[in-house]
Amino acid sequence: MTPAASTATTGRVIPAVQERATSPESPTVPEPATAREARAAAPDPAAPDRAFSERYLLSPDMVADPYGHLDALRAHAPVHWSPMHHAWLVTGYDQVMRCLRDPVVSADRVRPLMDAVPQGARTDAERAFGILSRWMVFNDPPQHRRLRRVFQEAFAARAVVRYRTFTEKATRAVLARSAVPGRTGDLMADVAKPLPALVFARWLGIPRTDAPAFWYWNARVADLVLGTAQEESEYRASLQALVSLEDYLAGLVDRRRAEPADDLISQVLGEGRVGESVTVEEFVGMLTQMAFAGGETTSNLIANTVLALHTRPGALAAVREDPELVQGAVEETLRLDGPSKMSIRTAARDLDLDGRTVRAGDRIFLVTAAANRDPARFPDPGRFDVRRTGATHLGFGFGAHFCVGAALARLVAVAAVRTLVRDHRGLALADGARLTWQPSLLNRSLTALPVHY
């Protein structure tokens, strides 16, 4: 567990939070001045890679199945300057790990993008971008470390495990309501989205009566962060939703100060760091990240794992025979076709990366979807192996930016998939269903998963 430019000619909005790549049909988000100057003064960094056929990563075929192209790109050059995307595409496992460890590769990429905001949305954007700047994922050490430490205990596996019983009960309740034998439905809408919503609302301490507004705001924030808000009106609605979400959570923090409950907010407040190591404003800003990131990532992990198993009869048979292998299936999905395809960084200073000179201000796409299939690190990398051991995948990142909510996401995904495998043996993908994916650089998210229960 990664803001927007409109043009008079197209009327489209470029989602700058996800930093959508440019195409011949898409207006370009300008490079920072320092990067442009360095680029003009240096030899063309793309010259050694001209033999490689560039592909636009948001073209429909790349959204549907990017992996063949990413494999070819990694084999050609694991560090590749892409003129089309105005970024370095890093696809090798060792090279991505180097970037995740190197403090020169910065996660701070919110403030420079304010220049890309449509003029009419700038007032709303000022506050919304201020909220985003308090998200841990957009901060570097030592600021990132200071912010993350506030949640360290609450997100530890030993703390999350106490939600297992609630998660299992919620899973059975959701499936009993939606997965009726003989019915045809959409597993995304029926199970993968509502189950994490239930668990995360309980975990955050969202009162049931507030849930509809809370999840509406989250959906609009997702449109902003993942780039699906295209028209200026949609973009403005997403900005306002983020502001509304922060206002709501600030009020909830005040309530929990007066009346503590059994939830994340009360636990962190009880530890005494809010108001000392972080401000209340920083704490509330980070809660907006938690509210958005947890549900989105876990929903996609559930759906992608179910899809992976039901397109591989051998793997499905193995987990049905031994449901303990569900954990392995979830881990293989994170590696092979996980919820996250890449994260975006910026070079804080010039650096040498695999023999290539990356200039200060250059954007860097850390393509974990390619690194997780690197044959130098994973034997038979294209095989979905529920018993795989060995190298650590990067499905939840690594190091300082390892997903703080990984333990809870795994808990919910394993509970959902295990129950589906064990108790719903008639589940099958709907005949003739054409799967489509959300057009996002960052996320790997189905629009729907049609099934027969």
Descriptive account of the structure:
The longest helix is centred in the middle third of the chain and has 31 residues, at 280-310. Helix content is 47%, strand content 9%. Strands 3-4-10-7-5 form a five-stranded mixed sheet. A three-stranded antiparallel sheet has the order 6-12-11. It has a two-stranded antiparallel ribbon with strand order 1-2. The chain has one domain (4-452): Cytochrome p450. The two termini are 31 Å apart. The chain has helices at 33-41, 60-64, 67-76, 93-101, 122-132, 143-149, 152-155, 157-160, 164-178, 187-192, 194-204, 211-226, 232-258, 264-270, 280-310, 313-321, 326-337, 368-371, 406-423, and strands at residues 4-6, 13-15, 79-82, 87-90, 105-106, 184-186, 343-347, 351-353, 356-358, 363-366, 428-429, 450-452. Residues 1-49 have low confidence and may be disordered. With 453 residues, it is of the alpha+beta class.
Total of helices: 19
Mean pLDDT: 86
Rounded Rg: 22 Å
Proportion of residues in extended strands: 5-15%
Structural class: alpha+beta
Count of spatially separate domains = 1
